[in-house]
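URGENT: need a sanity check before tomorrow's submission.

F., can you look over the Biotin/lipoyl attachment domain-containing protein record below? I want to be sure the sequence and structure line up before it goes out.
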Amino acid sequence: MIDVKALLDEMKASPFKVIDIVAPHTGVVEYVATEPGTCVFGARGTWREKPGTLLLNLERERNKKPVYAPLKGEIETAFKELDGTFVEAGTLLATIRHYLTKDEVIEAILKKTLYLFNAPEQAKYYFFPEVDTKIKASGPQSVKVHDGMELFIVSRMKREAPLVYSGPEGMIYAVYFKHNESIEAGTPLIGVCPEDQLSLIQDVVSRVQSEWEERD
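Structure tokens as predicted:
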């Protein structure tokens, strides 16, 4: 049985995630935004054509390469002692505290409550044509799955092979992959909800929609 209150209380106790900003390549660090609590924004625009807040530059071979905030949040820590120094790729340069939106909270809770069927290998994944047609017409919750059901087509190295679903019987509640997108091994493809728990899951979603307060 899903404890809706416990799930929400857990998320409310830690309503954010910390994002590490690491050096994408070697270079000399030049900080731009360093003050803890400073609000930053991720890429914006219809096509995310507007870059996020400039956090720092990495100078390499006399060229400055900007590093922008990936998401909305506030600066938690900037390691100012690195300013003006040469760093290796992967060096931690700053952290951003990103407060979760309603959609992000719902996604996190669903991943804790649904049965996640993961990609067994890195490849592109597609639903079987009849399943894909049904999902496009009526949504993922119109598809009931059972152990051993041929559900996916795996495309890798120009070869395609069927993939059967293994797990509990239920309805597809969430789809986590996109058409023609390469998925890494271990990444969830779908989240399955047993039919007798569907109303509880929907209750969780409704509670988040009504109770979660987003930060401006």
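My own read: The mean pLDDT is 93. The first helix runs from residue 4 to 13. If you see anything odd, call me.
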